Amino acid sequence: MKILYVTSEAVPFCKTGGLADVAGSLPPALAEQGAEVAVILPLYDRVRVQFGDRLKFECYDYVDLAWRHSYCGLFSLEQDGVTWYFLDNEQYFNRGALYGQADDGERFGFFSRAVVRMLDHLKFWPEVIHCNDWQAALVPIYLKDDGVREDRYRSIRTVLTIHNIEYQGRYNPFVLGDLFGLDHGWADDGTILMDGDVNLLKGAILCSDAVNAVSPTYANELKMPFFAHRMESIMRQCSNKLYGVLNGIDMKLYDPRTDGHIKKTFSAEDMTGKDECKAELQRMTGLRQEPHTPIVAIVSRLVSHKGLDLICEVLHDMMELPIQMVVLGTGDQRYEEFFHWAAQQYPGRMSVNLDYNEALSMSIYAGADLFLMPSKSEPCGLSQMIAMRYGTVPIVRETGGLRDTVQPCESWRDAGNGFSFANYSSGDMLHVIREAVYLYKDYPDVFARLRQRAMAGDFSWARSAREYLRIYSTITGIEWPVRKDTARVDTARGEEEAHPFEEAPVPVETAPAEEPPVKTASAEEPPVKTASAEEPPVKTAPVEEPPVKTAPAEEPPVKTAPVEEPPVEAAPAEETPAETAPAEETPKKTRKTAKSAEKSGEKASKKAGKTGAKSAKKGTAKKKKAE
Ligand code: GLC
């Protein structure tokens, strides 16, 4: 199987967010499984500076896009069984920053056009082109365009991975011909038009042979207005080709047994090193040397969808518990100011680091006890997996990949690998934080076993790579693995041998749009109980080998009283938070089975989707890729 992976960033070459981690790990994992893999990305100035001496010049050509005729160089580098191709055009890619330029549309229009143009010069003609996010969204569209004239483009199958649907590549329709070289028919029939804008992601969703989100739950959430940033009807229309594939993490890089960046290595069997890491973290961040006080950590971009409003609301209640807090991240001014102020209120108990600091983040993963991630939405999330690997038990909201990786603790039967709450409610969050602290303080043995289960999770890329290969196999018709006796099956620690001929993955089922995903706190109904996990709200794509399996929690082990008195400086927990879901998307308990999962059998047509409502806002909303 020959796969070309198209991305705008990849570790170790260039990174702004989680996409780079995925693009750096998945292609080598696919190669491990026996696929032929090449990755193609822009040759940014930072890549040239750091990797220039290892780059091999292959050739150059010219890319025609609208009236432009631009130079494009092709460089390559072999690493981890993968050929990494870099497309060179200094005018577009020598900019310092990766994104956020006024001409991002033109830059990534050029990039996508150049990928298709340079196919002739690569080491193979791909059977699958796997594109990521809006920056590569024009690739499947150009392939359809060129396929009209040349058969060989029609032979290529395409996959689009959505890492975060918030970023769609939206432009004024005015630019369709001039910037992207596309005929107005693409807008007229609605394929690339949405809410009056050219929407590159929508075009790619309709034109790709398969679309996947980075976790099964996120794939289902994308059919709901609360999560889909207006794309819900398109996602539902395409549900017959929509998959959810959970990301992995680099299990070798993030290994507390061998990690040279942490104070002392440790393992699930011998946790003494973690105690030293904790003492070191307290020393580094100015927290009191208290070995028996749990450290709650937040390593996050400080932006709204990370659920920080919940923390702002109940921070004082949290600090009344015997905890220390460490916060690391940068982001919106209002959160930076809040945490800066909060740190001053709790000297020696709260450390706030408004910074992007990889080294400190590793010290936090290794030294903290609990990892808080109450995201409003989270396509996958990698940090909860890294935290678990280092025995830092996650506390998460049940959304997206958080829901797929963290199973709530049921101490009565020693199950689960973290703590979770369903409703976007500060009261519910506080309840599980209390539960976690209570377990840590009063039942250290139970907590230690919980920690071990968190550390035992298998978040390796091999599992995800096999799922992607089955998707490629489904859309190309190429048998995979090729033959039972030659198939290479990963037998990583804790992972069962995968059956070489597992069934092809089934696209995720359509979730009813009426079913609200979250519940906000309301004045009448104080948020006391965490939602039970008995009935998932929607059916997700089959993950044949879930990292950790636990039975549903029927009753949280501890029940605490609702927050009765509002904290002095923060909004009361009973009040609906300012940033929560709008009224029509509120109430109803979450994790409720869809009564009638409206299973739309609609076929997604190649150039269908006359949904481009021409009404709404005009003007360009240039969404910039922020992570
Ligand atoms: C985006 C998402 C994040 C995900 C990452 C990699 O950054 O916001 O949840 O883990 O992409 O897919």
- CATH topology of the largest domain: the name is Rossmann fold
Whole-number count of domains: 3
Gap between N and C termini: 30 Å
* Residue runs with pLDDT of under 50 for 5 or more positions: 486-504, 510-627
- Helix/strand/pairing category: alpha/beta
What spatial form do the alpha-carbon principal axes imply? globular
The DSSP helix count reads: 21
The fourth-level CATH homologous superfamily of the largest domain is Glycogen Phosphorylase B
Largest sheet: 9 strands, mixed
- Based on CA atoms alone, the radius of gyration comes out at 24 Å
Query: Going across the major beta sheet, what is the strand order?
Result: 3-4-5-2-1-6-7-11-12
How would you describe what is shown here?
With 627 residues, this protein is an alpha/beta fold. The protein has 3 domains: 2-244, Rossmann fold, CATH 3.40.50; 272-459, Glycogen Phosphorylase B (Rossmann fold), CATH 3.40.50; 512-614, no CATH class. Helices cover 31% and strands 15% of the residues. The chain is built from 21 helices and 18 strands. The protein has helices at residues 18-32, 45-51, 90-93, 104-117, 138-147, 151-154, 176-180, 185-188, 200-207, 216-221, 225-228, 232-237, 272-285, 308-320, 333-345, 358-367, 383-389, 400-405, 426-442, 444-455, 461-476, and strands at residues 2-6, 36-42, 56-65, 68-79, 82-88, 128-132, 157-162, 170-171, 193-194, 197-199, 210-213, 242-244, 295-299, 324-328, 350-353, 370-373, 393-397, 419-421. The strands form 3 sheets. It has a 9-stranded mixed β-sheet with strand order 3-4-5-2-1-6-7-11-12, with helices on both faces. It has a 6-stranded parallel β-sheet with strand order 15-14-13-16-17-18, with helices on both faces. A 3-stranded antiparallel β-sheet has the order 8-10-9. Helix 18 (400-405) links the parallel strand 17 (393-397) and strand 18. Helix 1 (18-32) crosses helix 21 (461-476), helix 4 packs across helix 5 and helix 5 crosses helix 9. The longest helix has 17 residues, at 426-442. The radius of gyration is 24 Å and the shape is globular. The two termini are 30 Å apart. The chain binds alpha-D-glucopyranose. Residues 17-19, 22, 163-164, 214, 247, 378-382, 627 line the site of alpha-D-glucopyranose.
